[in-house]
Amino acid sequence: MASQWLKARQTRYAAYAVVYTLVVMAAAVVVNVLADRYDKSYDATANKRYTLSAQTAKIVKGLKQDATIVYFNASTRFQDGKNLLDEYADLSPKIHIQYVDPDKDPQLARADNIHDMGTAVVEIGDKKEAAASMTEEGITGAFIRDLKTSTRTVCFVSGSGERQLDSTGRNGLSELKSRLGEESYDTQTVNLIETAAVPAACTALVVAGPTHDYAQPEVSAIQQYVQNGGRALFLMDPPLQMGVAPIADNSALASVLNNWGVTLDKDLVLDLNPIGQLAGLGPQVALVTSYESQPIVDPLKGTVTGFPLSRSLEIHDTANTTVQQLFQSSGTSLATNDLDSAEVSVNNPKNKKGPMILAAAGTYDTGKSGSQGRFVVVGSSMWASNSFINFNGNSDLALNAINWLASNNALISIRPKPPEAQHLTMTRAQLNMVRIVSQFSLPLAMVILGGFVWWKRR
C-alpha cells in the first residue's frame, strides 16, 4: 500500500514541487547573502549617469583624513539623498555620512547656516563647505573647496583682441571662467601693455587667441614669466586674412615659442574624416580621438575633442626646454597655406597631408631647484570658447591643462557630466519600416499564428 502511494502520480508531483521550492529558496538565500556582502552595481547608461566620475573618485580616494557629509532634510525624506551619498561612502572608508533633520536638531542646522531642506555640508578637518546642489557636481565641488590650501588665480591676457573672459557670447570665455570657479580658481584679466609684467599672484597665464600683434614689452613680460618658473597656456589661432577682422601673425610671440621648441605653422587644418560630417561638423573642425601619454590627456582616452579653425605645430627640444606632443589630427586631415580665401581646394598639391600636431606641452629648466616653467600650446582658441567648450571632452582638456600648469595633478581627470537626453535619430526609411512592422507585420503574424493554432485544435 505504501509503495503504491509512493508511486502515485500526485505523490511524485508533490515531491518534485517540494524539491523545486527548496532549491529556489536556497538560491534566493545565497543570492541575498552574496548581494549583502558584495555590494556591486553596473551602470549601463551611455554617459554613466549613475556612476561617480573619475575626478570624484580621485579626490575621495586620495583623502588624507576622514571626511563627513552631513545631509540636512526631513527624516521622512532622507532617502532623497541616500543613493548618491552611499556612492561616496563606497569609494573610501574615510567618508562618513550623517543625516540630520533640522526640525529635530535646529541647533546643528543653525551652526551650519542651513536654511533649505535637502542641503549637504562637507566637513574635512576644521573646514566646512556647503554643496551648491545635491548633485555630484555640487558635492565634489564642496570637497575641492575644503581641500583648497591656497588662493590660485588664472590670469587672462587682454588688450590685443583676445577672447574676453566675461563675455557670454559665442566667442567669449564665460563658460570656461565658470568651470574654473567650480575647481576653486579665481580669475582675472591682465593688460601687459599697461604693466609690462605678469602679476605675482597669477598661478597660470592664458593667452586666448590674440588677433593683434603683441608689442615687445608684452612679449618680454610673458617670456620672463615662464623662464622664471611661471606657467602659461597659449591658444594661438592661424593667421587668417579673410573677413573684416584678419588675425595678425604675432611674429614676436611666435619667435619666443619657437625658441622654446614650438613652431607655429602658418596654415589651416582641414579634417576630411567622415565622422565629423556625421556629427554635423564641417572640415574646418579637426577631431581628435587618440592622445599621447601625458598627464593632461591621459584621462581623455576614449573621448573625442574638437578644434575649429586650427593650425598645425612642429616641436623639438632645446637646451632649456623639453617639449611633448599631446595629440595630432587624423590621417585624413590636410593643411592649406591659402589663408586669404574662404574657398579651399582639398586637391591642391601644395596642401600638407596629415596627421599633424595640434597641441604640445613643455617644461622650461630655470636652473633653480624646485622651480620649473611650464607651457601648453594649442593651435586654436575657439575650442575653449562658449560655442565649443561643451563639445565632448573639450572642457576636460581645458581644465586639465590649467591644473597641470598649476601643478594641481589631483584635479586632472574626467569631470562629472550633467544628465543628457538620449535621442534616437532615424531616417524616413527607418521610420517607415518601424511603422510597417509595428502596425501591420506583427498584428498579421499574430492573426496567422492564431489561425494555425485554431486549425490544429479543430
Quick description:
By secondary structure, this protein is of the alpha/beta class. The chain has helices at 2-7, 9-37, 54-61, 79-91, 106-111, 136-147, 174-182, 192-195, 216-227, 251-259, 274-278, 394-405, 428-457, and strands spanning 67-72, 95-100, 119-124, 127-130, 153-157, 186-190, 202-208, 231-235, 262-264, 268-271, 285-288, 305-308, 313-315, 321-328, 333-336, 352-353, 357-365, 372-378. The protein has four domains: 2-37; 54-147, Glutaredoxin, CATH 3.40.30.10; 153-411, Rossmann fold; 424-458.
Description:
The chain is an alpha/beta fold and 458 residues long. The chain folds into four domains: 2-37; 54-147, Glutaredoxin (3-Layer(aba) Sandwich), CATH 3.40.30; 153-411, 3-Layer(aba) Sandwich (Rossmann fold), CATH 3.40.50; 424-458. It has helices at 2-7, 9-37, 54-61, 79-91, 106-111, 136-147, 174-182, 192-195, 216-227, 251-259, 274-278, 394-405, 428-457; strands at residues 67-72, 95-100, 119-124, 127-130, 153-157, 186-190, 202-208, 231-235, 262-264, 268-271, 285-288, 305-308, 313-315, 321-328, 333-336, 352-353, 357-365, 372-378. The strands form five sheets. The protein has a seven-stranded mixed beta sheet with strand order 6-5-7-8-18-17-14, sandwiched between helices. A hairpin with a 6-residue loop joins strand 17 (357-365) and strand 18 (372-378). The chain is globular, with a radius of gyration of 30 Å.
